Amino acid sequence: MPLASYQTSVPVIVDDAKCIADKGCTVCVDVCPLDVLRISDMTNKAYMAYDECWYCMPCEADCPTGAVTVNIPYLLR
Amino acid sequence: MALDQIVDGLSEVSCDVLVIGGGTAGPMAALKAKLKNPKANVVLLEKANVKRSGAISMGMDGLNNAVIPGYATPEQYTKEITIANDGIVDQKAVYKYAQNCFEIIEELDSFGIRFLKNENGDYAVKKVHHIGTYVLPMPNGETVKKALYRQLRRARILISNRYMATRLLKSSDGRIAGAISVNTRTAEMLVIKAKAVILCMGAAGRLGLPTSGYMFGTYENAANSGDGYAMAYHAGAALANLECFQINPLIKDYNGPACAYVAGPFGAYTANNEGSRFIECDYWSGQMMLEFYNELLSGKGPVFLQLKHLHPDTISEIESTLHKVERPTRGLFQQGRGVNYRSESIEMHISEIGFCSGHSASGVFVDDNARTTVPGLYAAGDMASVPHNYMLGAFTNGSVAGIDAMEFADSHDFAEFDAADVAIERDRVMAPTAREDGIPPNQIEYKTRRLVNDYLQPPKVTRKYELGMRRLAEAREDMQERMIARNAHELLRALEVQSIMDCADMAAHASLYREESRWGLYHWRTDFPEKDNENWFCHTLLSKRDGKMTSEKRAVEPYVVPITDDEKDLYDKQRIRASA
Ligand SMILES: Cc1cc2nc3c(=O)[nH]c(=O)nc-3n(C[C@H](O)[C@H](O)[C@H](O)COP(=O)(O)OP(=O)(O)OC[C@H]3O[C@@H](n4cnc5c(N)ncnc54)[C@H](O)[C@@H]3O)c2cc1C
Ligand code: SF4
Ligand code: SF4
């Protein structure tokens, strides 16, 4: 059965200008309870790879540079 | 390397005590086990990262069930929980918790976690329950996880993050021998041999589907997919009163607590669309949830948490708590909707169903030493059967489990498991990765949980349950034959769906077994609408026997604290009678 990819607007956004993943930071990726953040191979910045978020906040609270913003997932906003 | 690429691998390590789940109960269990025998090896295995995992990921605003000398006695608390849980309580474990929890509060205090005190330096406990006074605010509640983590590091507990436990291992004579786990980012497997194992994997929080339709918008931390319940089941341990579901009153759509325990002591209350109170007491019980449900459907819904009548300074104080700890995105949510607590009430709704003893009474059966029915296997926190346990119960019983498990490990050698069991589990775990083509886990999970809502959510109707079980069996077949996982992250979700499916089956089986109604909304069976104390004043134990799901009755242990006849029904009288 063929698969289609499904568009979804993700709740967590990262400000590339502030993110220092390219200098080795992985804090947000490390702390997320749902393990949905990753560092992009292309930009070397953190981003939300999977839309499976508990809107809980550790990523935003623990980011050393204030690069992460957690929004309420659209379906329950 | 591609994102979450699957790596083939299997390794084995061993330890004296293995704790699975590093949320709330787990860190305390690991710490106490290690302090009991500092020379022993204690491993704390966690699916996420112990720094920020579990229900208390962002801290907590208070203790819901603190038994503090001068405010309450262990006898009073045991009585209250017995009545709130409709009498089906082995009081010994509740009483032991009530006796021990003050010591744990003082210990948490020594870790740097502060509790609210009044001018005289006494703990400032608040009344929320029907009878007694047990709620204690935590002014720096956001620091809980950091404080625990410091203790774990100091005690040199070995922490393994991002390993999801999938099955327990046993010896041929039925003793616990260890556990099997999978790395959630590489799919490499790790076998951990252990003399004793403590399960602290939290509630089964991804069982029902939230009304928003967002699969991860659950009340519980969405990492708690019921793996602990499924693992205990497959290891042959008994699970108690699973039909006593967890259902909570929550902020509609946001699906987090509002929270009456924070706002209630300041004068906030639950009201209907006329602004009138309709329940006597905001403490979360099945009886209270039934009135909540009835009100929603009565034409007097929606239901609200009312606080706009309070002084603006009081509202600011409540707001700063709600928007800072526990579920801090509450503020963002209300802001997005333009809701100001000063002028508008908070619209409430009821949550999806789950298993949880922390809030209800559905859990892996344990005695007052946190022992399950499998020798060497322990459970604590939301997934263990001590009812209405909450956070302090997770800490206190985690402590009990840690100490007893280390005593067990000190007096036993490793039990031998059969290597074939590991091979079988490896095949099960990896099966979705071997398929080229099929159905992704998110679709199977959505469908399973949608079926849970359609057929298993109370009121429980026998005919609906029978149909629901047929539909679930079809979804299970898809899951077993056709589910695919294309990377390690998808494999994590694929394994979680299997736990969710097992929990759905257990929820249905347990609910059909108990032929009466009890615990208000939690077990309201329309075909058996009355409470039947003559036949059903007992626990039900569900377990796997010869590969099949079975249920049996178990007598309630004789009470330690007697309950008089006029006290028994106090929680049944939740509805405020219309005043003439
Ligand atoms: C939103 C919310 C608000 C609450 N408010 C209060 C309150 O104000 N006061 C109060 O007293 N109580 C409150 N509670 C209840 C209290 O937080 C819980 O009862 C308690 O924290 C449960 O602890 P636990 O250790 O059982 O579970 P958790 O703390 O949830 O820990 C379970 C851990 O197991 C891990 N895990 C799960 N599956 C696996 C696996 N397969 N392998 C490895 N690890 C796994 C999870 O990642 C998690 O870290 C609240 C709960 C919630 C959800
Ligand atoms: S924590 Fe902040 S700085 Fe670090 S990787 Fe994440 S977004 Fe970038
Ligand atoms: S809000 Fe929570 S679940 Fe969502 S990305 Fe951040 S840490 Fe992960």
From TrEMBL, chain A:
Domain of life: Bacteria
SUPFAM superfamilies linked: 4Fe-4S ferredoxins (SSF54862)
Protein's UniProt name: Ferredoxin family protein
GO molecular function, one term: metal ion binding
Alphabetized PANTHER family for the sequence: BSR3197 PROTEIN (PTHR24960:SF71), PHOTOSYSTEM I IRON-SULFUR CENTER-RELATED (PTHR24960)
PROSITE patterns: 4FE4S_FER_1, 4FE4S_FER_2
Source organism of the structure: Bradyrhizobium frederickii
Domain 4Fe-4S ferredoxin-type, chain residue ranges per copy: 10-42, 44-73
UniProtKB/TrEMBL annotation, chain B:
Occurrences of domain FAD-dependent oxidoreductase 2 FAD-binding (ranges): 16-387
InterPro entries tied to this protein: FAD-dep_OxRdtase_2_FAD-bd (IPR003953), FAD/NAD-bd_sf (IPR036188), Fum_R/Succ_DH_flav-like_C_sf (IPR037099), Fum_Rdtase/Succ_DH_flav-like_C (IPR015939), SdhA/FrdA/AprA (IPR030664)
Keyword set includes Transmembrane helix: no
Keywords: Flavoprotein, Oxidoreductase
Superkingdom, taxonomy of origin: Bacteria
Stretches assigned to the Fumarate reductase/succinate dehydrogenase flavoprotein-like C-terminal domain: 467-561
UniProt xrefs under PANTHER family: BLR3196 PROTEIN, SUCCINATE DEHYDROGENASE 2 FLAVOPROTEIN SUBUNIT
Protein name: Fumarate reductase/succinate dehydrogenase flavoprotein subunit
Organism: Bradyrhizobium agreste
